Each structure stands twice: as structure tokens, then as C-alpha cells.
Amino acid sequence: MLNVSQKIADEFGSKRGLLRFLVFGIKNSFGHYKKATKVDLRDVRRLVFICSGNICRSPFGEEVSKVNDFEAVSYGLHCRGGDPAFEKTLHFSKELGYDLHAHRSQHISNYEPKTNDLLVVMEPAHLLELERLFPESKKVLIGILSSQRTVYLHDPYNTNDYFFLKCLRSIEIATKKLITQVGNQK
């Protein structure tokens, strides 16, 4: 039988991940993120995946999108740029059928908005930063489209293998669902 700490690590990534999941979930239940969970997808032509370091979540979302023939790019809010995908990202993305070996991180300052972009955000803290940087851009919290239907998708960087793979699977499911929804709006 798994102990409580192991269950938390497997389901939420860490104790901090559990706390953020709960806090952001409560805020969401009061409609705090409604604008980023109910998005008009008409005219979306490119998905712009954004996370902290652009070495785990956002490059994986970008690759899933591209493999499914939908234009995409990814950026990090807190990265220097030029770094390859994290080793675990490379390993688990390959296990899921994706190749991220060519990926190099890009800082958000290199982002040039296009009219038909949709900013695909991993967590509410990133959403707040992006609201300041790009207030007119459409934004969606990707976790709301995952099987967990959450507004917070914890950074898997320092998590165990079980959670890391679970996180990438959530991004894969949500990205495919988003592409289908965008296609249904055309």
C-alpha cells in the first residue's frame, strides 16, 4: 500500500503541487479563470504553448500539435533560451511517440504575436503574467481540457517518473482535444 506522500507525489507532483491544485481549483470554482476556460476558438490558426522553462510542458504541447498538423510554437516565461528539452521530457515524449531532440528553449521576449494565435497556458500564475504582457491575446488554461479538468498543470521538472508521464499524457490529451475543437469552429 502506498503511503500518503507517495500518493501525493504520483497525483499532484509534490505537496506544493497539491496545495496549488487546491487553491487554484477553489478560485476557479468562483469563476476566477472563466475567461481562460471558455475561449472563443474561431479564427485560431496557431497554438502558442507557454510554461516556465520551455523544456518540459510547452515544448511537448508544441510537438503534439505539430504531429497533428496544427501550427504551433512554444516559449518559456523564465528561461534564458537555447536549452534543449529536459532529459525526462526527451525520454517520456519518445515513449509516447514524439521526438523533441531538436527543441531549443525560447524566452517569451522573442514571441511575435499573430492575429490568430491562441496562448496555451499551463498554470494560472503564467496566465497573470501573460495578461500583463499580451492583454489582447486569447488565452486558455490547457489543464481544463485534460482528463483532470484542472486549471493548474504542475511543472513536472522535479517530480517522479509516474507524475512526469501523467503530466505529458494530460498535455497530449488536452492538445488533441483543443485541435479538434478549433477544427470544429471552422
Total beta strands: 4
Domain unit count: 1
Derived from helix and strand composition plus strand pairing, the structural class reads alpha/beta
Q: What overall form do the CA principal axes indicate?
A: globular
The helicity comes to: 40-55%
Number of helices: 6
Spell the H/E element sequence.
Answer: HHEHEHEHEH
Summed over residues and divided by their number, the pLDDT gives a mean of: 95
Beta-strand content: 5-15%
**What can be said about the biggest beta sheet?**
4 strands, parallel
Judging by the overall fold, what is the CATH architecture? 3-Layer(aba) Sandwich
Q: Which CATH class?
A: Alpha Beta
| CATH superfamily descriptor | Response regulator
First-residue to last-residue Cα separation = 49 Å
- CATH topology value: Rossmann fold
In terms of per-residue confidence, which ranges show pLDDT below 50 for 5 or more consecutive residues? none
Pfam family, one: LMWPc
Keywords: Hydrolase, Protein phosphatase
InterPro entries: LMW_PTPase, Ptyr_pPase, Ptyr_pPase_sf, Tyr_phospatase_low_mol_wt
EC number: 3.1.3.48
